Amino acid sequence: MNRWTKDQMARRVAQDIVDGMVVNLGIGMPTAVANHIGADREVMMHSENGIIGFGPAPRAGEEDYDLINAGKQPVTLLPGGCFFHHADSFAMMRGGHLDVCVLGAFQVAGNGDLANWHTGAADAIPAVGGAMDLAIGARRTWVMMEHTTKSGEAKIVPRCSYPLTGLACVSRIYTDLAVIELTPAGAMVLERVEGLSFEELQARTGVALGR
Amino acid sequence: MIDKIRSSPAEALKDVADGATVMIGGFGTAGLPDELIAALMAQGARELTIVNNNAGNGDTGLAALLAAGRVRKIICSFPRQADSWHFDKLYREGRIELELVPQGNLAERIRAAGAGIGGFFTPTGYGTELAQGKETREIGGRMYVLESPIHADYALIKAERGDRWGNLCYRMTARNFGPVMAMAARVTVATVHEIVELGTLDPEAVVTPGLFVQHVVRVPRTRTTAGGVKEPA
Predict the structure, then answer these.
(1) Stated pTM of the model
(2) Residue B103 domain flag
(3) Is A194 among the residues known to form the active site?
(4) CB distance B104–A77 less than 8 Å?
(5) Of A165, A166, A163, A195, nearest to A178 (Cα)?
(6) Is residue B137 part of a domain?
(7) What is the pLDDT of residues B67-99, one digit of tens each?
(8) Each residue's pLDDT tens digit, A51-64
(9) Residue B207: which domain range?
(10) What is the spatial distance between Cα B219 and Cα B195, in angstroms, rounded to a whole number?
(11) May I ask the CATH architecture of the domain A6-210?
């Protein structure tokens, strides 16, 4: 079956990030979205550890570990970028000052509930970081994830079985098979990967899809 | 005369008592006050409650303090990391208490303590297991969770430059938790790489006013295990 690669998914998310937006990209798959935001758009990138307006990774040998992103990777500062403390950084999220955050997920429910911080397994050590603040804070929370688990189970579900990160917070889901908008009228398919029928997509999705 | 300059981390930390709550700044290696953590290790206080974003990495610093059995409880947002094996082991053996807090609630609870706020309603965590048992309230059509301030006996933070009044400037993302932790603790100890004459820091650029700081210790700039920092400009 045809699937979008991670790089194609990142490019697809980047298409929806428009000039002037303030954006926070989660750790993991969403980080790659930055590679596809072209020079035609000026976007302010925010990271939870107190930086806005950061740019790509520095050249080898130029790394400065006082200048890092939330993934603790070295970044660069663009002209206009600045620093602030942690309480201000999370005020930017919680206060609704970020236009978009893009997060990974274990599961998303049809009503926009998000589960992405903890599998709930008895021996797992829980760690939440900034996920809960981001999920409910940004004006738009977009999820980027594989459409199904490795064993083929739907990750878009009627109700999350994993512990929740935030309630009714996700508005759009970008997967390797489709782009789906969660609306009060239901989950609407905006795009499908080439060669995949609506019925085939529906069969891999835990909630009724509309178009 | 006000002079908060101390000769060593050990001098600044000599009065930490058993059972103390100690905040430690830092996110990654940025802003992590290595020398103060080493001094706390040598100082010997036990049954500590530690407030930090993480729960120690590798075998040094906070991880060493945990491994030595000196920490009773840790309040943090992200304990589990690839190299958090000392915390992982203590947690699995039930030998350390964990209070897991969403990172923004952690920062705001610390800020609230420093600002004299008795509690605040936040939307973060509502409806999740991290808000279980907490008071909730609908405000303006949205649901919020009541969170309480986190006070500390000591805050150990890393800044870039300071003066004898305790005024501090930070360097890039090493600022992170430093300013809010400095507000929340009874005693704040800051390391700096440079001590300057009073009146030299740009008053428009002081991030932490000196009244939040009790001890300032100069430490040499060292390369971090993560790959090093640039020399100061």
Answers:
(1) 0.96
(2) yes
(3) no
(4) no
(5) A195
(6) no
(7) 999 999 999 999 998 899 999 999 999 999 999
(8) 999 999 999 888 89
(9) 5-116+150-218
(10) 10
(11) 3-Layer(aba) Sandwich (3.40)
